[in-house]
Specification:
With about 325 residues, this protein is an alpha/beta fold. It has a single domain, classed as TIM Barrel, CATH 3.20.20. Helix content is about 45%, strand content about 10%. It has 14 helices and 8 strands. An 8-stranded parallel β-sheet has the order 7-6-5-4-3-2-1-8. It starts with about 35 loop residues before the first helix and ends in a 12-residue tail after the last helix.
Length: about 325
């Protein structure tokens, strides 16, 4: 049994190790209202476009296994709970180092591959712990900063938190925006805020969380995406995972088309991260299919695409075990931490 790589020119994506590919760097450009005011979004068309994905884009057997391994490599394995402990974070890091059981990896024909998740995402309090636990693995630590999840701390405080996380070894910073700037149409204020965060990140890779469930309309989502990219966001991300509504396929369609249009206008490449509510392998397959159709194979690699998730990994591993053995294991057989 062998899960092969068919990344270029094929229907499936395999298990090649892309984790060490360089992140894109998106430099800030001068603020302009023109592309923001030009944004138009057709809600019914977006819903129609994404509603057919589940039935129209399906893959089976070894093809499905290959896609699921790729989804696994694109996970930001995350713990953002009030009861997090250093021990839990270390166990999560151990899972990130070896997300697939050795017997399953060998049965898939991938025993000679180094397979890891895309990153480990934690609060600032646990950045140093995660960096130590992941030493030598090449797996970056992502820190949620800027007053996560509400983002309502004073800006100076938020910038200092970014700097502290970078000093502790975080290579990626997930910031949250002030939703009020979007809801009141204060695009200059949003641009200034995100740009200040970008400067505080230094060499760290910056993902900007739009908290799309709080933004009310898809048009606001598209406009916030544009402003965040103009201000230098290396990734744009849907949600904190704490909103009532988190990642959805229509929101994803709007955001990744903004990424595509931004690249056409500026030549700069921006990554994408859906987060919150993506907990099944079936969900992950739909997101991967949409990314492939809209942005191409380059956005099926962890340097340009991530899932913000924790329970997703357990279901992916469970589905891969079913592919290998023909039997479904209980979720307790694939504990995260």
């Amino acid at each position: 049994m062998n899960v092969v790589d068919k990344h270029r020119g094929g229907q499936a994506v395999g298990a090649a190790a892309f984790a060490n590919q360089p992140h894109p760097y998106n430099p800030p450009i001068p603020f302009s209202l023109d592309p923001i005011e030009a944004v138009r979004v057709n809600l019914s068309a977006a819903e129609r476009r994404t509603s057919s994905l589940g039935g129209r884009r399906t893959v089976k057997k070894e093809w499905q296994a290959a896609w699921l391994v790729r989804a696994l490599q694109c996970i930001d394995l995350t713990t953002l709970n009030g009861d997090d402990t250093a021990g839990r974070v270390r166990r999560l890091c151990a899972k990130a180092r070896q997300p697939l059981r050795t017997d399953l990896q060998e049965a898939l024909g991938l025993g000679d591959r180094t397979i890891t998740t895309g990153a480990v995402c934690v609060y600032h309090r646990f950045v140093a712990t995660a960096v130590d636990a992941l030493q030598g693995s090449g797996i970056p630590v992502a820190a949620v900063s800027t007053g996560f999840p509400a983002g309502l701390s004073p800006l100076d405080t938020r910038l200092k938190e970014i700097e502290a996380s970078v000093a502790d070894g975080a290579e990626e910073i997930d910031i949250v925006i002030t939703r009020e700037h979007v809801l009141t149409g204060n695009w200059q204020a949003l641009y200034d805020e995100v740009k200040a965060c970008k400067e505080a990140c230094g060499k760290a890779h910056m993902k900007t969380i739009l908290a799309t469930g709080d933004l009310q309309t898809l048009r606001n989502v598209a406009r916030a995406s544009w402003v965040s990219m103009m201000a230098g966001s290396d990734f744009i991300k849907t949600s904190t995972g704490k909103e009532a509504i988190n990642a959805t396929l229509p929101v994803t369609l709007v955001m990744i088309r903004a990424i595509r249009d931004y690249r056409e206008m500026t030549g700069h490449v921006v990554g994408y991260k859906p987060a919150g509510g993506i907990s099944t392998a079936k969900d992950a397959m739909a997101y991967l299919a949409l990314m492939k159709e809209e942005l191409g194979n380059d956005w099926l690699q962890p340097n340009l695409f991530r899932f913000g998730a924790s329970s997703l990994l357990a279901d992916i591993e469970r589905q891969l075990e079913h592919y290998v053995t023909g039997r479904y294991a209980a979720f307790s057989h694939h504990a995260m931490a």
